[in-house]
Amino acid sequence: MNLIYELMVTGILISACLAVYLEEAIYSLISLTTMLILTALLYSMNGAVYAALFQLMMGVGALIVFFLLSEELTEKSKDKNTPRQILLTIAISLILAVPVTLFSAEDLIASVSCDISLPSALWELRGVDVILQGLVILTVVLGASIILYKKEGRK
Amino acid sequence: MNYIVLSLILLAVGFYGLLSKRSFLKILVSIEIIATAATMNFVLLSSSLSKTLGEALLMLAFSTDTCVNAIILSLLVITAKRYGKRSISKLAELEKTRENKRRDDE
Predict the structure, then answer these.
(1) At how many degrees (to 10) do helices A2-21 and B24-48 cross?
(2) Does B98 contact chain A (CB < 8 Å)?
(3) Any residues with CB less than 8 A from the CB of A74 and at least 6 apart, and which?
């Protein structure tokens, strides 16, 4: 079970890195699809079956639109990735997968704190997270409206 | 709790793509990776606590994510049809050229 989990995590990281790095839009989208499917599998392995189904449905819907757009709108990329560059990206993502499989944030937290576990602490404090996200969105909206107001003034 | 580390690394990969790539489609892919990293925390933390609220929050987060995708896609379609450009840097050059032209006219 642990090995399957580690393989899945490595697969997620490799496909995420390839999705960002590959120049060809279609290959990049195929990597993104792989990442979303593996994430859905990870959710279902952790017992969140509805979340996995929802992830698959939304992922498929969004990716069909992405595929159509990439076919219709994007130019064919002139500079293609060499196999050496792709292998280097895979090697980097394998290195990135090492801390995920070895490092556990739970051990780190347990050495300094008390009775409350990390998942429950994060879960209890999710309200703070929502407020902070609200603040970020408010700042972005204010910034955008100031820029637009200045542009209107210049005209 | 390796999920937090996984989510952090995915977030870093997404931010790298967002800052380094100039193509609209690559930016969209990076935003998708960042959204996956964020929603992963909801689902995996709540399932480790045997609570189902995380799955409900994931669905809300996905609906927001879909709105963001729709806005970026509409921007991509508008810029591709109006200017024939698909890269942010090319759009910025276009904006600079228009600004210079307006100054010259004044």
Answers:
(1) 160
(2) no
(3) A25, B23, B25, B86
- The answer on pLDDT for A34 being more than 70 is yes
Residue with token string 């196999």: A83
CA nearest to B87, candidates B38, B15, B26, B6: B26
Give the residue among B14, B88, B40 at the shortest CA–CA distance from A20.
B14
Does an H or E element contain A145, and which?
helix A126-154
Give CA–CA dist A66/B74, Å, rounded. Answer: 12
Whether residue A30 contacts residue A57, with contact meaning beta carbons closer than 8 Å, is answered with: no
Residue B81's pLDDT band (cuts 50, 70, 90): confident
Dig out the tokens for A36 from the structure: 């979303």
Q: How far is B102 from chain A (nearest CA, A)?
A: 10
Which tens digits make up the pLDDT trace of A98-138? 777 776 555 554 554 455 565 666 667 677 767 777 777 78
Residue A103 has what pLDDT?
Answer: 65
**Residue of A107 and B76 predicted with greater confidence:** B76
Residue B93 CB partners (closer than 8 Å, separation 6+): none
Residue A133 is predicted with a pLDDT of: 74
Residue A80 per-residue DSSP state = P
SS3 call for B19: helix
Q: What is the pLDDT of residue A73?
A: 66
Closest CA to B6 of A31, A98, A112, A128: A98
Residue B40, both tokens: 């992963």
Are B1 and A29 a contacting pair at CB < 8 A?
A: no
Task: Say whether residue B4 is in contact with chain A using an 8 A CB cutoff.
Answer: yes
